[in-house]
Design goal:
Layout lengths: L10 E4 L5 H12 L3 E6 L9 E4 L8 H5 L4 E4 L9 H13 L4 E5 L12 H10 L2 E7 L11 H9 L1 E4 L5 E2 L4 H13 L6 E5 L5 E2 H12 L4 E4 L2 H9 L4 H15 L9 H6 L6 H8 L16
Parallel strand pairs: 1-2, 1-4, 2-3, 4-5, 5-6, 6-9, 7-11
Antiparallel strand pairs: 8-10
Helix pairs in contact: 1-6, 3-4, 7-11, 8-9
Pfam families: NAD_binding_10, NmrA
InterPro entries: Ergot_Alk_Oxidoreductase, NAD(P)-bd_dom, NAD(P)-bd_dom_sf, NmrA-like
Organism: Streptomyces machairae
Length: 298
């Protein structure tokens, strides 16, 4: 279906605008003086933005969302093992509507051409002259927001993974958003994929210890087997996606995420936040806590 689009100037369409990175990206764009169309399934009003209803599985919402946008921040549909099926038709329509720059949220664990969003990553450079693929490590907000880990910490004082003692360069969603804003608005797009991490690699045992220190409540890391983790996840999400997430935990145990990069510093000009800083900001008992809505946290 072809939908007529009208062109305006310097307007970013932010997908998942109520989610973990989308909400932060929209807020930072507004703070920097940019126009933002905030896309979500319920067209939620966010201060300073133009809310627009958008659903990956309803192509009838594509045209209104794209109208007037010249750049787009892409957050894949949550829990879909084959997001390319719905994302690629949208991206082709975006290009036809005059969108010049696309910034895709992917994952450090998924290379170009890999499973799930990896197929979208492969397609983006061929569709847009200006582009970036953000490949963040696992989110620090998984332990402070509405992710299952955060719920388990609050309800049971435990983090359950199949990651063993593997270390991860956990990254603050605020830093992801800061890179997204630069990728969307700088005179030159990165035209590359960017692996984003925090300043240090930590194990889940380390995370549990820091949360314990910051909150004053004991938190432990329960080391599950791969199969136990898969089955636990499969009770909440499709088996194929649960299997993929359990495999990611197994990769962490094998050292796949034990790295840090200078990307946040290089792109934004400031160093990334460490986990203790984020925990004190979002979990400390003396702080008013703001819990982000569910997003594609990893």
């Amino acid at each position: 279906m072809t939908v007529a689009c009208t062109a305006l100037t310097r307007t970013a369409l932010v997908m998942g605008a109520t989610g973990t990175t989308g909400s932060r990206t929209a807020a930072q764009l507004i703070a920097a003086g940019h126009r933002v169309k905030a896309a979500s399934r319920r067209a939620t009003l966010l201060p300073g933005t133009e809310p627009v209803r958008f659903d990956w599985y309803d192509p009838a919402t594509f045209g209104a969302a794209l109208s007037g946008a010249d750049s787009v921040y892409l957050v894949p549909p949550i829990g879909d093992p084959d997001p390319a099926a719905v994302m690629l038709p949208f991206l082709r329509q975006a290009r036809a509507c005059g969108v010049e720059r696309a910034v895709l949220l992917s994952s450090s664990a998924i290379p170009e051409g890999g499973p799930a969003v990896g197929a979208v990553h492969r397609a983006v450079p061929g569709l847009f002259d200006e582009w970036a693929v953000l490949r963040p490590s696992w989110f620090m907000q998984n332990f402070t927001g509405t992710h299952a880990h955060a719920d388990s910490i609050r309800d049971h004082g435990v983090i359950r993974t199949a990651a063993g003692g593997g270390q991860v360069g956990f990254v603050d969603a605020d830093d992801i958003a800061a890179v997204a804003v630069r990728a969307l608005t700088d005179d030159r797009a990165p035209d590359s994929d960017l692996i984003l991490t925090g300043p240090e690699a930590l194990s889940h045992d380390d995370i549990a210890a820091i949360v314990t220190q910051v909150t004053g409540r004991p938190v432990t890391h329960d080391r599950l087997t791969h199969d136990d983790m898969r089955d636990r996840l499969a009770a909440m999400i499709p088996l194929e996606f649960a299997t993929m997430l359990a495999e990611m935990d197994r990769a962490i145990a094998g050292g796949a995420e034990d790295r840090t990069t200078d990307t946040v510093l290089r792109v934004t000009g400031r160093p990334p936040n460490g986990f203790r800083v984020v925990a004190e900001r979002e979990l400390a008992p003396t702080q008013a806590q703001t819990v982000p809505e569910t997003g594609p946290t990893r």
